[in-house]
Amino acid sequence: MPERRTFLLTMARGLGAATIGGLAWTGFLDGKKAYPTVLRPPGAVPEKDFLAACTKCGLCVAACPYRALILAKPGDERPVGTPYFTMRENPCRMCRDIPCTISCPNGALDRLLVSGKDANDVMMLDVNKTRIGLALIDRETCIASWGIQCDACYRACPLIDKAVTVEYLRNERTGKHTIMAPVVHSDHCTGCGMCERACVTKKASIFVLPRELAMGESSDRYVKGWESTDEERIVDVPEDTTTVTPRSEKSPLDYLNKGDL
Amino acid sequence: MPVFREYRFMLLRRISQTAIMGLFLGGNLLGWQVLQGNLSTSRLLHVMPLTDPFAVLQIFAARHMVATEALTGALIIMLFFGLIAGRSFCSWVCPLNMVTDAANWLREKAGLTVLGNGPVVISRRTRYGVIGISLAVSLATGIAAFEWISPIAMLHRGIIFGMGMGWTLVLAVFIFDLFVQRDGFCGHVCPLGGFYALITRFSLIRIQHDREKCSLCRKCLDICPEQQVLPMVGKSSSTVTSGACTNCGRCIEVCPDHAMKFGIRFSPGKQRTRIA
Question: Least CB-CB distance to A22: which of B55, B137, B164?
Fold first, then answer.
């Protein structure tokens, strides 16, 4: 066989082997990187960027004074080598100096995301800007919502009366008691998970999920007309919008004025 | 003490490897601030960043910008190994080296080496291919591909932060080196080793061979995990120039003629008989 042909065939064979390996590798990683329920440390950039930036060094894990952060081991059902919380066992204590965020050398944890301007207009760390996730309540298992007196989550919340408040409802069953139901407010909840740990039910009835999973997104087409600031939300929305289904040619008035109502 | 002479660098390497892991472990468990993090990224004495440059390269391939601190750390590591220490990461730092050395020892003891290589033959250039695949897969998936499956990372992360199921991969490397290919992982497949081999081509610390003393016993070639770097043995007095040499010093230890020594690249003439 001519030398050139042998060379080309050898190259092709090597490339072929590399392609098999690369495809298998890509497929494996593609399945490994999607764990939507993972709870990241304070200041974590969006999950897609986080997975790209994190070098799995564990400096944030070593920095946590409460050993709340865990570096995912193979078999942990989390992206391997990346840091995460398990709130029921060991929630985030909201350290004011946020040692985990500060320790990150890779930009996977961004201190700007947990900073705000203080009274003198200076950027300072503000742990309350943390958005690990959002606490959700299962009212069907929450004993306070049953009408039994419990305020464990409310008392455990480091932002008591802001992130968790108590809603007073009439107990329709007895007709003379109050149901003191906890309510979470997303504009304050940091997702620290103190409530999840404090919850007295067998499996926590209040639990933290990542915000992308826990929250919906309101439509540009609907505005709270009774809130003066809500209209700001749709300022940048273009006037001419497209609709998926064709609009009705008829006027609503026609329908209302038809005699068969 | 001839026994000590034959294992003095290996002893030093084991001390170096375990001390680095020990410092990391203390950094995580006891809050020692000597060396924190792991071999992917760490901080020395709480200030100096050290980053695996191959990991940074993969992050770039994944179309992501690396923070300045990590970039600085990668630069420090590249300068240290690339200009000074050679591919010594593999033999003096990496804990997987202990696993593959153990496999190699057992392979020798069990007589598997005499049996020869097989069932498949893997080229030493495979690792450079794996570098290419690592970068391509990083580009395709948007994450640093090798960092997710690296047995090295599984081992050092496992030692420092908890092993989990990571031992399976480490055992796989052990078995691979034991039955499939001598020095199979570190010398043929590992892209990190390949990366260091590429960047340490011009490093200062080098093995030097003295033809005058050599009695052609071939012990150095038999022990060397990268035999192809020693073509000069018995032929000419010269310096090992290949980046693939891990500076492990095994050739120096086993040489009964004192014909091998550690030296500086640019001083082949100023050979001293005293061995470092």
Answer: B137
Q: What is the mean pLDDT of chain B?
A: 90
Predicted local distance difference test score (pLDDT) of residue A242: 73
∠ CA B149-B95-A84, rounded to 5°? 50
Mutate to test the interface with A, among B64, B72, B121, B167 (most CBs of A within 10 A): B64
The per-residue pLDDT for range B201-212, each reduced to its tens digit, is 999 999 999 999
Flag if B141 and A26 touch (Cβ within 8 Å): yes
Smallest CA–CA distance from B61 into chain A, residue? A52
CB contact (8 A) between residue B163 and residue A71: no
3-state helix, strand, coil in chain A (%, to 5): 30, 15, 55
pTM above 0.80, yes or no: yes
Q: ipTM score of the complex?
A: 0.87
Cα–Cα distance, B138 to B175 (Å, whole number)? 27
Alpha-carbon gap, residue A166 to A142, rounded angstroms: 13
